[in-house]
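Tutorial handout. Part one gives the primary structure; part two gives the three-dimensional structure as tokens.
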Amino acid sequence: MDATELYRKVLLSIAGNKLVEKLSLKYGRKLASKFIAGDTLSEALDEIEVLNRKGIMVTLDHLGEGIQALSEAAGYKEEYLRLVDGIAERKVNSNVSLKPTQMGLALDPEACFGNIRAVVSRAQKHGNFVRIDMEDSPFTQATIDIVLRLHKEGLTNVGTVIQAYLHRTENDVKRLIEAGVNLRLVKGAYKEPGTVAFQQMSEVIDNYKKIIRMHLDKGIYTAIASHDDRIISWVKDYARANGIPKDAFEFQMLYGLRMSEQERLAKEGYRIRCYMPYGTMWYPYYTRRLAEKPANLWMVLKNMFK
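Part two.
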């Protein structure tokens, strides 16, 4: 295990400590603002307009996960309906991301499906697309099942996320490609055991490239979510070498990270989409961003003392 992998595992473990969470919620909101577009939908829509003017597309996410009651899920559903309507009213270039546990997956899978279906149906009426985010491995199969069920109902404006670090990923990709499901391809950001996920980053990278090739070689539109310059350069080189046009794929990055690089990719003619979260339930999302690499934590620590 190299130093970066050790850092990630330690930080995710610390972040799960209740005292650390309590202190972070009390003192960390200003720091988290680096990664979060605002507390309200209006603030987020304003920021989308700023990015759109720079040639950057957006996927908008209302923060929240791991709810305790179905009433919370109903509230999130209503916020997402407002979100979808807000995107249409403001005519911004943005699609939608949501988490299944936010919609009640861990409490009542059928209620969760109904909540997600309402959002996807509303988005379809507006000609928009919904991405169901992939959470940790206990929810992988249930999330895939929701997407496939929605497609069978004719709601094909919905896709999900595939994490390269899971052992099961290649088979999932084959199945979902066959079903015509649009996928966002990522390395993976949750703490998982070796029985479920690759533990060496070299293995994750190899699998990541494999599932990207599986898409590009079949001419399937590919969403590649990575801040890794090695991956970005490899995709560019692979596309050029194989005659794959720039509009056959998109790069995706996170709000608040490498924004100048996002602008540069847009100016180079690549499709680039920024994953933009908003809302007050920021702690889980924030800690995963810090855990991804030491540079993120260093950036936040520097800002603390400015």
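Part three, for discussion. Residues 151 and 266 are 31 Å apart (CA to CA). Residues 70-90 form the longest helix (21 residues).
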